[in-house]
Amino acid sequence: MKTQKSTYDASTNFKGMTVERYYTVPGIHPFDKIEWERRTASITDMKGMVIFEQTDVEMPSFWSQTATNIVVHKYFHGTPGTPQRETSVKQLIERVTRTITTWGQEDDYFAADQDSENFYAELTHLLVNQQASFNSPVWFNVGIEEHPQSSACFINAVEDTMESILDLAKTEGFIFKYGSGSGVNLSPLRSSKEYIRGSGKASGPVSFMRGYDAFAGVIKSGSKARRAAKMVILNIDHPDIVEFINCKMTEEKKAHALIEQGYPPEEAYDSIFFQNANNSVRVSDAFMQAVVDDQQWQTVAVTTGETLGTYRARDLLRQIARATHACGDPGLQYDTTINDWHTCPHSDRIHASNPCAEFLFLNGTSCNLASLNLMQFRTPDGEFDVDSFLHAVNIMIIAQEIIIDRASYPTSAITENSRKFRPLGLGYTNLGALLMARGLPYDSDAGRAYAAVITALMSAQAYKTSAMLAQVRGAFDGYSINREAMLRVIQKHACAVETIDRRDLPEKMVSTAQTLWQETLELGETYGYRNTQVTVLAPTGTISFMMDCDTTGIEPELALIKYKHLAGGGNLKIINNTVTEALIHLGYTDEQQAHILEHLRTHETIERAPHLKSSDLAVFDCAFPPRNGQRVIHYMGHLNMMAAVQPFISGGISKTVNVPNSITPDEIMDIYLKAWKMGIKAVAIYRDGSKQMQPLTTSEKKEPKEEFHPVRRRLPNERQALTHKFSVGGHEGYVTVGLYEDGTPGELFIVMSKEGSTISGLMDGLATSVSLALQYGVPLEVLVNKFAHTRFEPGGFTGNRDIPMAKSILDYIFRWLAIKFLKPEDRPSVLPLPHPALNGNGQIETGQVEQSQETEDERQLKLWVAKNERQVFQAQSDAPPCNICGELMVRNGSCYKCLNCGSTSGCS
Q1: Buried b (16+ CB within 10 A) or exposed e, 541-578
Q2: What is the overall mean pLDDT for the chain?
Q3: Strand partners of residue 682
Q4: According to the model, what pLDDT value does residue 908 have?
Q5: How far apart are alpha carbons 72 and 68 in whole angstroms?
Q6: What pLDDT score was predicted for residue 477?
Q7: Is the residue at 769 inside a domain?
Q8: Which is the catalytic residue, given 153, 356, 882, 895?
Q9: Does 333 share its domain with 187?
Q10: Is 700 labeled as catalytic in the residue annotation?
């Protein structure tokens, strides 16, 4: 491999870009360097029904089955079952890379034919080896249409006229149709406190939001049955700001009421407004300072500028915090900070963002996104490969730049502005896995410094490539009037490198970043820049699955354990691959690793694992606490990471700061204040459990014609009984089950500890309740499914081979009852799964099961491992279900992603 040159001769003039080969060699196609195999791609819903299947698809052998399923389902073009349907990843990647290369040739981007072929080979290598990926619209549309919609993000504008208001609905509709998302600031619309011609009161922006929301709710995105993604923003000085702050919270209360009356959660949320958009309030430094100083704040009329309302600034921010506490919206966008980093202030201010708030630019613009998989840029010894990374940045920026002029846009204004200002959105994904693999805690100074320098390298190289493109293609059209302002922003980026804590960083990373920013500044002073913006940090939902990433965007690991559904019921626990890499990097022996991994698999937490040093525990902290542990990344850890990388990003960061259910509105208010002081451009906060996606109660419809009266079935005076001695975490007890004549259980006695103690009384009361339930006809499987896996102390080892671990005494008793009295098909969720052997990497060795003794559970396990590789993270039970396959989704930036089929509610 050649070493990437770190300098660029600004005095040389090219007729086009020269592209050197780094990964590939002439005469050998990138596809020929890897092994391929035929597979079946399949996606099932929650009931196990197949909702998509394509057989005999050609995939790289190292792509996971998850990547196979999602890419074939989402990105392969053509009607399934027809000859026009794509059948190989080769076709998919070739369609995109060859099209972009041809566009580049036709538009004179390359100095010679050899440069274009070099570019094609290098880009193809990056994509097929999961080092990089474009946003979804590129995969959907490039190579299919002559002028494809290729951008994931759009920012719209609206004026205070009915024509403009209705035009916005039409524009958003076309954006959603082709798989993208849009944002808009509705502050130009006069408030409901102002008048229209004819002396009537105006409707106000919140009223129009109802229409926009309903329209978005019925439009599927990209013909892929994905819900539309949108952002709605209102300025803090708009007269309707209070109504805007509370609108989603008010609707949330309606959903809660419907769920309490027995309506399914999905149906309840589908029947209320404002569920198809993320809401954000634009706040200025003046407002935030008024909060700090406890000053008054005034809202002003859109039409006349007169004061229409006076509020205590703290009260407004507190209302925002209360609404966020209740339903997750609105978030905050810090207007002054955003515009202080604006490269084109003389063209207009930045008023809005895309749905996930990473693209922050002028109204009427778009951004095509791409992301780099950080885990794929490491040397064999685990160090970050700076040269490889910089070369990949160079290739991806050229590719994204080529797309701009050949893409289509929903309006003439967006077409004009996108080609005039040419914003790009290169970012990265898998940061959380990279930090863990390197043995760096996500919430640490060292982890933040490592993330910051990588981000600095990416943006410096991206802007440098943009300046090189400006030399051969010319600067963007608005550069001349914004030259000084843009160079000031580049200088701010360069100066921020000096603030990175370099104590624990490889010297090459820091010195290269410093050199690159200086070169970028010098090139810009000479040639300008081809692009106004070059980098963002997007949530990277579906494309992270395509690249087999363990983590998405800037997020940390969700959990150390992945769950895979078994076709016959239950879940299989798989340890994340990154855990083993981290243990190796931290110096643990093979034997120590095996013990730690076994502890993690058995206990579902790495806490208290043998051999593991307490000083290393923080490396394995995740976004959610483990089932049997306490450690979790504090929400300030998320905020501090955003603050560390923000100075090196052209746009914003799509990341939700997850906070615990117990947090108070005042604490959320404090987070908003801290984010502002840290210089973060936008922040969204989500309190776990604030969405009520699970039923509170079940209301049964009464049948007036017939009343049901339960009848108690008493046991005979003399009855058979079974007594079982048990121990849970060292706490011994006895459970006795009285039996009917047919051998079914009819009563329960539980004896624990000393007579008269609290635990003894509770167990006695529980046993009486269960006995009455059984005698009144409640099926035992209902009780088992209700009480099995309940977790509280005491819990732990049991000594029972069938139930080696129990999460509580209740968990043990009801799982024991299931084993003794239920048929196997009635107890899939409570029986322990077969314990497959782990190899040195903490992965399952599927060949361990002997054919001659194969049980049905084992057979289903083998079928599953061979057929599917679906990840299920059993947290955030309040997340919405995926509208494709029905699985519960999980948070992904400001949006959600489905771990089963790869669908997202965002725009990337």
Answers
A1: bbbbbbbbbbbbbbbbbbbbbbbbbbebebebbbbbbb
A2: 86
A3: 333
A4: 55
A5: 6
A6: 96
A7: yes
A8: 356
A9: yes
A10: no
* Tokens linked to 539: 């949530």
Same domain assignment for residues 844 and 769? no
Average of per-residue pLDDT across 319-334: 95
* Cα distances (angstroms) measured from residue 235 to each of 78, 404, 567: 44, 31, 50
CA 201 to chain centre: 42
| CA nearest to 134, candidates 392, 310, 396 | 396
Judge whether 661 lies within some domain.
Answer: no
Task: Specify the 3-state DSSP secondary structure of 299.
Answer: strand
Which pTM does this prediction carry?
Answer: 0.79
Given a cut of 60, whether residue 735 has pLDDT beyond it is yes
Question: Is 13 a residue whose pLDDT tops 50?
Answer: no
The pLDDT tens digits of the residues spanning 262-294 come to 888 778 888 888 888 899 999 999 999 999 999
**Cβ within 8 Å of residue 899, ≥6 positions away:** 870, 871, 872, 873, 887, 889, 890
CA–CA separation, 814 and 812 (whole Å): 6
Q: What is the DSSP-derived secondary structure letter of residue 700?
A: P
Q: What does the pLDDT average to over 51-65?
A: 95
> Do 750 and 840 belong to one domain?
no
Query: How many domains would you assign to the chain?
Result: 4
Catalytic one of 135, 246, 278, 354: 354
What does the buried/exposed string (b/e) look like for 821-841 if buried means 16 or more CB atoms within 10 Å of the residue's CB? bbeeeebbebbebbebebeee
In a domain, 61, yes or no: yes
Could you report the per-residue pLDDT of 161-216, keeping only the tens digit for each? 999 999 999 999 888 877 688 999 999 999 999 998 766 889 999 999 998 988 88
CA dist 167 to 216, 280, 466, 706, 885, Å? 14, 22, 34, 56, 33
CA atoms within 13 A on the CB side of 553: 34
The owner of tokens 């959660």 is: 265
DSSP of 502-535, one letter per residue? -TTS-HHHHHHHHHHHHHHHHHHHHH--S-S--B
pLDDT digits (tens, 9 = 90+) for 682-714: 999 988 877 665 333 323 333 444 555 677 888
Same domain for 749 and 769? Answer: yes
Instruction: Write down which residue in 826, 844, 860 finishes a domain.
Output: 826
In DSSP notation, 64-110 reads -HHHHHHHHHHH--S-TTSTTS--BHHHHHHHHHHHHHHHHHHTT-B
Residues 235 and 269 both lie in one domain:
yes
List, in order, residues 6 or more apart from 102 with CB less than 8 Å away. none
Q: Please determine, for residue 308, whether its predicted confidence score (pLDDT) is greater than 60.
A: yes
Residue among 194, 243, 358, 519 flagged as catalytic: 358
412 belongs to a structural domain: no
Q: What is the mean pLDDT of residues 549-558?
A: 92
The residue length of the chain stands at 908
Give yes or no for residue 223 having a pLDDT over 50.
no
Degrees (nearest 5) of the Cα angle 501, 503, 505? 85
Is there a contact between 835 and 842 (Cβ–Cβ < 8 Å)?
no
Burial class (CB in 10 A: 0-12, 13-18, 19+), 802: exposed
Q: Are residues 730 and 821 in the same domain?
A: yes
Task: Tell me whether residue 530 is exposed, middle or buried, using C-beta atoms within 10 angstroms of its C-beta: 0 to 12, 13 to 18, 19 or more.
Answer: buried
Is 20 noted as a catalytic residue in this protein? Answer: no
The pLDDT tens digits for 70-124 are 999 999 999 999 999 999 999 999 999 999 999 999 999 999 999 999 999 999 9
Question: pLDDT tens across 413-463, in order?
Answer: 999 999 999 999 999 999 999 999 999 999 999 999 999 999 999 999 999
Domain identity same for 792 and 846? no
Tokens of 535: 């980098």
Residue ending a domain, choose from 293, 320, 340:
340
> What is the per-residue pLDDT for 179?
65
Residues 839, 765 within the same domain: no
| Parent domain of 563 | 557-632+833-873
The pLDDT, as a whole number, for residue 271 is 87
Q: Is 358 marked active-site?
A: yes
For 442-476, b/e burial (b = at least 16 CB within 10 A) is bbbebbbbbbbbbbbbbbbbbbbbbbbbbbbbebb
